[in-house]
Amino acid sequence: xxxxxxxxxxxxxxxxxxxxxxxxxxxxxxxxxxxxxxxxxxxxxxxxxxxxxxxxxxxxxxxxxxxxxxxxxxxxxxxxxxxxxxxxxxxxxxxxxxxxxxxxxxxxxxxxxxxxxxxxxxxxxxxxxxxxxxxxxxxxxxxxxxxxxxxxxxxxxxxxxxxxxxxxxxxxxxxxxxxxxxxxxxxxxxxxxxxxxxxxxxxxxxxxxxxxxxxxxxxxxxxxxxxxxxxxxxxxxxxxxxxxxxxxxxxxxxxxxxxxxxxxxxxxxxxxxxxxxxxxxxxxxxxxxxxxxxxxxxxxxxxxxxxxxxxxxxxxxxxxxxxxxxxxxxxxxxxxxxxxxxxxxxxxxxxxxxxxxxxxxxxxxxxxxxxxxxxxxxxxxxxxxxxxxxxxxxxxxxxxxxxxxxxxxxxxxxxxxxxxxxxxxxxxxxxxxxxxxxxx
Length: 440
Ligand code: SF4
Description:
Layout: E1 5-11, H1 15-29, E2 33-35, E3 44-49, H2 54-68, H3 70-73, E4 78-83, H4 84-89, H5 91-96, E5 102-104, H6 112-120, E6 125-127, H7 135-138, E7 150-154, E8 156-157, H8 168-171, E9 176-177, H9 180-192, E10 197-201, E11 210-211, E12 217-218, H10 220-227, E13 235-239, H11 248-256, E14 263-265, H12 273-278, H13 285-298, E15 303-310, H14 317-330, E16 334-339, H15 356-379, E17 385-393, E18 400-403, E19 409-412, E20 422-431, E21 434-439
Parallel strand pairs: 1-2, 1-3, 3-4, 4-5, 5-6, 7-10, 10-13, 14-15, 15-16, 19-21
Antiparallel strand pairs: 8-9, 11-12, 17-18, 17-20, 18-19, 20-21
Helix pairs in contact: 10-11, 14-15
Bound molecules: iron/sulfur cluster.
Iron/sulfur cluster (SF4) binds near residues 162, 168, 204 and 242.
């Protein structure tokens, strides 16, 4: 038996990185690692990185500088970098920070055990391949410990869209989808261990095209209907989608599949057709608005969520105003908004940049509008009855916290139910980022 060692993983960025960190922890269990919440007593430190924004990459180097200090007290400590910065920068990371022992990309972390063994022999380990073997197949036997009621499950990776500002196609590669049967098996395993809600993950999840149980290629809607048959799985969500891949059968699934939650994250980035073209988004503001109309016709109470980039190269005040107009028309329950960030190697990086102060001012105006909409929609929930999947105890005694079907955080006082229970609650109050409810 490998002697027990401690693994500290720090995760940056998206839900898929959260899922990957979990799988990397499992991959190193075979080498005797258990996870620890602090780098102070770690035998290995792994930074699972994000490359989406400029600062994100630079942040990693300053973090590595801090982590290196731990080697003073523990000379056998190993430091590794994983995720999209590892994929994008590879050997450069070891050149800039010689204290790094291991660099592994998102597609090869199933080889972590042998890489770790290499570092224990005093060698450096680097793997940013796009291997032919399916990492999930190698990692399919997951530990049997009880889990929290909600879980992520990666079903698709990579992206073929090549939006002009995005590094994902370069760091995660071309779109690839996992076979339906493997996903169903993993979902059943998660349910056996206490999961009631699964969020299907993909950089472009609604472009899912996996091998179906009948040998044909299945889309996301067919996968969702197959997961709908899993006893004990109460809720299904998916993220992140592209407007051009919202097929009719997926909209119909929102209308007819009761386990598919009425929440849809559908990034648009800009409301200006000129900027959408320059972003290479391959759709117009009008087609996006028509799509939202069709989705709301199928599921009138659906809560929409979006992504916006402000200050994209060459964006004018008129372009920005078109974005505000689109937001006014859609009305978002949530929206994530960012100032454009130059990403080396992406087409937009070479273009004339918007003045930084101008971009900051626009971001504030956009976030003020989004916040106003978010609060109005939360306020409109007061008096309504929702179903809450309880996740954990709240701050106050007798209080439980969970998420409604619209993904609103809800805290319920005097709650006699337990994590994993689905309870009916009437919303009594809307506060900044959550709702208060009373058991019905
Ligand atoms: S669709 Fe999303 S992941 Fe794909 S290139 Fe565009 S922004 Fe990146």
